Amino acid sequence: MTERLVDRGSRSPDPADSIPTVDVHGLAEAHVSRLRARYDWRARWHRRFFRLGGLLIILASAALPLLTTLDYENKDFVLSATGVVIAVLTGLQTFYRWDKSWATLRAAESSLTELRWEWRLRQEEAKGLTGDDADRHRREATERMLAGVREVRLRESEDYFAELRFPSARAR
């Protein structure tokens, strides 16, 4: 019963103690780093799909004339399956445009890397400044980096949708 009478301090914490200081510059750099890593990851997969799909199309297309001249069981099925594989892979290459996407994603990743290094350079420059000048310099660098990120992402979207064609009805 005496435990209830013990003073355990204030029930509501001081707001100044509970609000952590947010390093917006660090958050911005982390955002750009994650975004750059995602572009890198996607570009690697698009490169793999493009190269593997292209290689399989070439091999299956080159094998098709040879397969027609040989005598073996289930020849009709093998020839049909080879034609289907060629058609499907060609369709996937055309639909997903892995070659264009690979190049676009690599360009975006490269631009983000450049923006991040430029930002880091400006952060180092800010270390030589004091007070409000340092804060202003860091803020301007972060704003410039984030504006660059928006531009890179917009350009990537525009590149992707620029050649996207939807089927249209023809007038009769």
TrEMBL record:
InterPro entries: DUF4231. It comes from Actinoalloteichus fjordicus. This is DUF4231 family protein. The chain crosses the membrane at residues 49-67, 79-96. It holds the Pfam family DUF4231. The keyword Transmembrane helix applies. Keywords: Membrane, Transmembrane, Transmembrane helix.
